[in-house]
Amino acid sequence: MTENHHLGQLNDRALITISGPDSGHFLQNVITTDIKKISEEDMLPGALLSPHGKVLFDFLIGYHNGLFFIDIRSAIANAFIRRLNLYRLRANIEIHEKKHAIVDIFQEKLIKHTSSKTEKDDSTLIFNDKRVNKKYNIIRTYYIKNQEHAAVDDTETWDIIRIENGIAESGTDFEPGDVFPHDINYDKINGLSFEKGCYIGQEVISRIQHRGTARKRVLIAASSSFLPRAGTVIEAEGSRVGVLGTVAGTKAIALVRIGQLKALTDAGIPVTAQGIPLAFSLPPNVYFILSDREREL
User: Which of 109, 152, 206, 235 sits at a 20 to 30 Å CA gap from 90?
Assistant: First the structure.
C-alpha cells in the first residue's frame, strides 16, 4: 500500500483551466509541451515562449476530464491569461483562473499497513509532478473549490526538493524573458517537443537543439559553508560564470555558462560565490558532460 506524506502547502500558485473543442489544438500550437504526452495522472513542465525563443511563462500542465489545468506562479497568472487571449483568435476555448486554489505537496511512500490516502473527488485534483526524479514520488493536490488562501506557506520545504532535483522556477531562479528553455533543462525533463511541429519560438529552440549551442544550464551548487542569497554572482578569477538561484543552506540552484564552467573545472580553477568555493553536480534527470575530469557526473 501507499500513504501520502504531507511535505508542504503552497500559496504562491494559481490554477488556470483551458477547455473547449479547440483547446488541445490551440495549446499544441502555442506552448512548448507536447500535450499528446500528458496522461490524466501526470503534470509535465511547459512554457510559453517569445518569438525569439525566450521563456516568458513557465508552468506545469495536466489534463483531466476534458480540461487542461495549468499550475503557474500567481504573480504572472493574469499576464499569462492575457497572452493566451492574444493568440486565441477564433479558437473555441474558454480560459478561467481558479481563484484561491490551494496546492499541497505530498510524497507518496510505500507502507505495510493501512493508512489514510488522499483521494480524487469533484473538488480535488491529484497529479504526479514529472519534473521530479521518480524516487521522490512527488504528487501535487489541488483543492479547486476551496475559497480560502493557504494558512501556511511551506515554500521553503518545496525549495529544498527543487534544489535536490535542479528544478528552476521563474521569480527566484530566473526572470521571465531572460532564458531559453534549454538553459533551464527543459529539453531534459519533457518540457520541450522537437516533434510536434510549429509553436511560438519553436524555430529558435530547434536551432539550439540541433546545433548543440545551449550556453547556459541549471546545475546544483553545493558548499561546506552556508551560501549567500539568490542573485549572488558566481565567478572565477574575476569573471562572471553564472548566478545563484534558490538557496537552502549549503545548496542552491545555479544557472551557469556551461562551457566556461567546464573549462574552469578541467583547469582546476576555483569557482566561488562571495568567496565561498562551490562544487557543481547534475540534477538527477539530466545528463551531459560537466568536466573531462569527472565524466561520470
Answer: 206
Vertex 16 angle, CA 58 and 92, to 5°: 105
Distance set, CA 50 to CA 20, 53, 194, 204 (Å) = 25, 5, 17, 10
pTM of this structure: 0.90
Question: How do residues 69-116 score in pLDDT, each as one tens digit?
Answer: 999 999 999 999 999 999 999 999 999 998 666 688 888 764 343 333
Distance of alpha carbon 175 from alpha carbon 17, whole angstroms: 24
Nearest to 43 by CA among 5, 16, 69: 69
Q: How many whole angstroms separate alpha carbon 227 and alpha carbon 225?
A: 6
142 with 159: CB under 8 angstroms?
A: no
CB 107 within 8 A of CB 138: yes
C-alpha to C-alpha distance for 294 and 281, rounded to whole angstroms? 10
Read off the pLDDT of residues 225-273 as tens digits, 9 standing for 90 and up.
999 999 999 999 999 999 999 999 999 999 999 999 999 998 999 999 9
**The CATH classification of domain 2-166, taken from the options 1.10.357.20, 3.30.1360.120, 3.40.710.10, 3.40.50.1100:** 3.30.1360.120
Backbone phi, then psi, for 158, in 5-degree steps? Answer: -65, -35
**Contact (CB, 8 A) for 59 and 229:** no
Record the cell numbers describing residue 41, joined without a space. 495522472
